[in-house]
Design goal:
3-stranded antiparallel beta sheet; Glucose Permease (Domain IIA); alpha+beta; 3 helices; 8-stranded antiparallel beta sheet; single chain
């Protein structure tokens, strides 16, 4: 199954590939050149199809776990000062997506959308230190039963030129459901409470709506962590 955000691109690429294959077949005399054009055009279509694939993953309601919002690799786990919404320290977990990853963004946990904002910006490479604040991005805050408010941020990369964000303020959302899409290379940051338990490591590969990123750490009556 393919994501709805790719329908126009897939159709356009399909007709373009068919045209190239037919023109090459009837008008290109050199065999190697003809086959080369046809193979390259078909490979382009395959790449577009794999980029916009949208594997079905069941929605969850694991209120004690924050799941990965996207497929990719964990490139940062660090304490940062978040200045757009919380204005306090948070644990930032950053996931980088290559062009070969599934680029669907999924809600990392169930809750109510409290904040959703788009920011125009630059297109620095997604691993650049300033990409979180300087690049085109969207910021979404979800109010959750266990963790309180958590924030995730879709960040455009050097190849990305459009971020799609479905989150609307006051909307109730469910863990694992589609939250948006980032076209052609990008990154997603999670900004989490300091007292949650981080369940991933640097350079770990994660799968959207499946891999646990953080767990809820409760307290007993004496105030000790459990």
């Amino acid at each position: 199954m393919f994501h709805k955000e790719g329908q126009n691109i897939i159709l356009t690429t399909f007709f373009l590939v068919v045209a190239i294959v037919l023109i090459a077949e009837y008008y290109v005399v050199n065999d190697w050149l003809r086959w080369g054009l046809q193979i390259i055009s078909v490979l382009l279509l395959v790449l577009i199809l794999q980029f916009f694939r949208n594997p079905k993953r069941g929605s969850n309601n694991l209120f004690d776990e924050i799941l990965a919002p996207v497929d990719g690799k964990v490139v940062a786990i660090e304490e940062v000062l978040e200045t757009e919404y919380f204005n306090d320290k948070r644990i930032q977990v950053s996931i980088f997506m290559s062009p070969f990853n599934v680029h669907v963004t999924r809600y990392p946990i169930s809750g109510t959308i409290k904040y959703s904002k788009y920011h125009p910006g630059k297109y620095l490479v997604a691993w650049h230190p300033k990409s979180s604040t300087d690049n085109e991005r969207t910021t979404v805050v979800i109010n959750t039963p266990r963790f309180g408010e958590i924030l995730y941020r879709q960040i455009a990369g050097a190849l990305a030129r459009r971020i799609v964000n479905y989150a609307e303020i006051n909307e109730s959302v469910h863990q694992g459901e589609d939250a948006g899409f980032i076209k052609f290379g990008s990154r997603v940051d999670l900004l989490l409470p300091l007292d949650c338990g981080i369940a991933v490591k640097l350079n770990q590969k994660v799968t959207g709506a499946k891999t646990c990123i953080a767990t809820f750490v409760g307290k007993n009556e004496e105030g000790d962590l459990t």
